[in-house]
Amino acid sequence: MQVQISGQQIEVTPALRDHVNSRLDRLTRLDDRILTLNIVLSVNKLQQRAEGTLGISGTNLHAEATENDMYVSIDVLFDKLVTQLRKHREKICDKHQRAAREERMYG
Q1: Is the C or the N end of the chain the one with fewer CB within 10 Å?
Q2: How far apart are CA 45 and CA 34, in angstroms?
Q3: 10 near 25, Cβ under 8 Å?
Q4: Domain that holds residue 75
Q5: How many structural domains does the chain have?
Q6: What are the Cα distances from residue 47, in Å, to 8, 39, 51, 76, 81?
Q7: What is the CATH number of the domain that holds 26?
Q8: Which one GO biological process term can you cite for this protein (predicted)?
Q9: How far is Cα of residue 31 from the mean position of the Cα atoms in its chain?
Q10: Is residue 42 within 8 Å of residue 75, measured between CB atoms?
Q11: What is the DSSP letter of 95?
Q12: pLDDT tens digits for 26-51?
C-alpha cells in the first residue's frame, strides 16, 4: 500500500506521521487489497482538519474530520474510513453471494 501524508499550512511532524502509521493496521486488517491512502492535514484558525482518500480496487473512498486536536481528527478520520470500507466489503460480498445463490438455484 502506498501512503502519502501531506500538510497544508502545517508541517507534518514525525509524531503525526507515526500516529497515522499506527492507525493503518485497522484498515489493512479489513482489506489487504488497499492500493493507496492519501491524507491531507490542514489548519484553519482553531480547526484541525484531516482528509483522507482510500484507493481500493474499483473505487475510492473519501472521508474528512475536523476537530480541535489534530490527533483526534486523525482518529475520527480513520473511524470513518473503516466504516466506509466495511460497508463497501459487505456490498461486494453480498453481490458475490447473491450471484452464487442464483446460479445454484437456476444453474
Answers
A1: C
A2: 33
A3: no
A4: 2-106
A5: 1
A6: 13, 16, 13, 14, 20
A7: 3.30.160.100
A8: negative regulation of translational elongation
A9: 11
A10: no
A11: H
A12: 898 988 889 999 999 999 988 999 99
The segments of the chain whose pLDDT lies below 70 read 95-96, 107
Which residue is it, cell 480541535? 68
- DSSP states of 6-70: EEESS---HHHHHHHHHHHHHHHHH-TTEEEEEEEEEEETTEEEEEEEEEETTEEEEEEEEESSH
> Which uninterrupted H or E stretch holds 1?
none
Tell how far CA 11 is from the center of its chain: 21
Q: Compute the distance between CA of residue 4 and CA of residue 17 in angstroms, rounded to an integer.
A: 10
